[in-house]
Amino acid sequence: MSRIVIACDSFKGSLTSGEAAEAIAEGIRAACPDCGITAIPVADGGEGTLDAVQKAVNGKWMTTQTFDPLMRRTEAPWLMIERDGTKTAVIELASASGLTLLGQDELNPMMTTTYGTGVIVREAISHGCKDIVLTLGGSATNDAGAGLLAAIGINFWHDDEIVSIPCGKDLEGITRITYTNIYRGTKQAHFTLACDVDTPFCGKQGAAWIFARQKGATDEMIDVLDKGLEHFAAIAKEYTGKDIAQIPGSGAAGGTAGGLLAFTDARIISGAEMVLDLAGFDEAINGASLVITGEGRIDAQTMKGKLPSIVAARAAAHGIPVIAVCGKCGKDIDAEMLPFKVLETCPKDMDTAFAMQKRQAKTNIITAVATYISSTLPDND
After folding, report:
1. Using an 8 Å Cβ cutoff, are 307 and 272 in contact?
2. Alpha helix (H) ranges present in 14-171?
3. In whole angstroms, what is the distance from residue 73 CA to residue 239 CA?
4. What pLDDT was estimated at residue 46?
5. Alpha-helix runs per DSSP H in 241-357
6. Is 64 helix (H, G, I), strand (E, B) or coil?
């Protein structure tokens, strides 16, 4: 009997990773009722990572009163994991500083801040967490993590005035940095930054030019934001000796990764690799005949560390074929060059907005997967 493993990311704006996986499973069952199905809760450092980690390690849910990207009061969940006397916090940046917290007319990375995420970090440290895992996908910000750093006590100055809540617009004006109010325990904390991109901090391939537009920036804003990041990198190097400008991944979450690399004890890892390790992915796919992964859109960014590319690489090491389910495949990529077969679920004549509605997205996935399995799985004659 064939066994299929599902390890699918969310279809942003439509389905969570769990909902997408269930739709894939329903499509498999429709075509092959006797197939064995193993669904693994996964994510790549973006939205849904906390849920995937909690299911994998049974961490304790915590909640912190904090602020959203526009400094409105909100509350955000995070996980505390206790092992061998050590406490680790897993914090999803998007839960306090994410795009989904803002309306379409509120998107403006000149004005948004990661300060709210810093409040959660401070809370985790106060609970005795010395290891902080910060997942960096889905941010609404482009502040180089200065807001987060301000919340844990690093002061950024414009001449003689402290910028208490740094935003994207403030980076270019920073003239000096002081450390007199560092929150207790922060210097002993180790930060692991889980992300799904290899974008550098600044420049034409950096955080602002690649990601700020989807956060509401115009071309003029992007130019200002990139100059701000360039200036921030220069002043960070002056104060810390660390050159973060072109480190792969330092541009994650609007430069938050770079800011933390400069001013804390931090390292970058693949969010997808982290979750797949915690979920025991390599063990789960032993003996599988097929792995199905996917996300809402397969494009050039997919092969830069996003979940489907990591899943495909790991499955290939076991000699297992992979298909990637998506709503649509971007025109910026040659599907023939990908390490998996792409299965587009949105009919070419269907309106994209309609296809992204939850019920329709599920229907499209079920239909496409059932059709594929019926026509290709050896057990189906």
Report:
1. yes
2. 17-31, 49-57, 94-97, 115-126, 146-151
3. 32
4. 66
5. 252-263, 271-278, 281-284, 307-317, 352-355
6. strand
Whether 96 and 68 have beta carbons less than 8 Å apart is answered as yes
Strands 322-326 and 341-344: parallel
Contact 194, 271 (CB under 8 A): yes
Once rounded to an integer, what is the mean pLDDT over residues 3-25?
91
Whether the predicted pLDDT of 380 surpasses 70: no
Asked whether the beta carbons of 379 and 362 are under 8 A apart, the reply is no
Rounded-to-5 percentages of helix, strand, coil across the chain: 40, 20, 40
Among 33, 59, 30, which Cα is nearest to 362's? 30
Tens digit of each residue's pLDDT (9 = 90 or more) over 263-297: 999 999 988 888 888 888 999 999 999 999 999 99
Distance CA 65, CA 75 (A): 4
Q: Using CA atoms, how far apart are residues 376 and 381, in angstroms rounded to an integer?
A: 9
* Structural domains of the chain, ranges and CATH numbers in brackets: 3-42+290-376 (3.40.50.10350), 49-272 (3.90.1510.10)
Question: What pairs with residue 158 in β-bridges?
Answer: 161
Asked if 230 and 200 touch (Cβ cutoff 8 Å), the reply is no
d(CA 90, CA 266): 14
DSSP state of 61: E
pTM above 0.85, yes or no: no
Interval 226-232 mean pLDDT: 98
- Sign (positive or negative) of CA dihedral 9, 14, 18, 22: negative
Is residue 47 pLDDT above 80, yes or no? no
pLDDT at 381 exceeding the cut of 50: no
